[in-house]
Write a sequence for this structure.
């Protein structure tokens, strides 16, 4: 009888030990950088489908993982994207807080220096949405200064954001100036298109209606 009880007790202990090891292994496999990146990637798909609640849930999980493991590059991107979701949901305060946290992390890391322009530009968009154009320009300009020595789509996109504000505030000459700094095409058709739209808008703002219409027709024909 005692022998049987001992065997049962040993089997139970062995089962608990195996289950504990399995749980630890499962936990380790989930709490990896790859898993965190996957949550981030999937959240982008959910945002594209306007499933903001699902995307936010995945990003909050990824945020916790990145914070625990000090994956600051991922963490900065995650916080920036969370800010974007709150922007879509018209939650200005929450969006601003996450963008600021994203920028704070990025600016402390030399490898993320240029990436810090993204949350700054997003803060600018928040203020533009609120029609606080002076504040918007401040952040757009600050973002542009971080990528000014580059020649990529991000620089051109930020230039367009600045130009749009200049157009709305009846400052076409400043709009032309920043647009001309980024007039060369980049490997992004959407950015090239919005650049052209901002340029044509600047012509209209300046009162050069015929030239604006000719530019528009020429662009559409090409």
């Amino acid at each position: 009888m005692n022998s049987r009880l001992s065997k049962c007790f040993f089997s139970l202990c062995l089962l608990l030990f195996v289950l504990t090891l399995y749980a630890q292994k499962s936990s380790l496999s989930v709490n990896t950088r790859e898993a965190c990146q996957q949550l981030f990637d999937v959240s982008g798909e959910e945002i594209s489908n306007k499933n903001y609640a699902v995307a936010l849930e995945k990003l909050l999980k990824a945020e916790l993982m990145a914070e625990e493991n000090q994956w600051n590059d991922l963490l900065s991107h995650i916080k920036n994207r969370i800010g974007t979701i709150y922007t879509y949901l018209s939650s200005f305060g929450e969006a601003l807080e996450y963008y600021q946290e994203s920028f704070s992390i990025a600016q402390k890391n030399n490898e993320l220096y240029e990436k810090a322009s993204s949350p700054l530009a997003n803060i600018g968009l928040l203020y533009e949405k609120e029609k606080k154009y002076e504040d918007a320009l401040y952040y757009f300009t600050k973002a542009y200064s971080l990528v000014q020595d580059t020649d990529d789509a991000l620089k051109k996109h930020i230039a367009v954001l600045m130009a749009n504000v200049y157009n709305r505030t009846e400052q076409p000459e400043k709009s032309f100036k920043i647009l001309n700094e980024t007039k060369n095409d980049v490997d992004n058709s959407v950015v090239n298109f919005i650049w052209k739209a901002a340029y044509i808008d600047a012509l209209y703002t300046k009162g050069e209606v015929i030239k604006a219409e000719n530019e528009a027709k020429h662009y559409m024909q090409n």
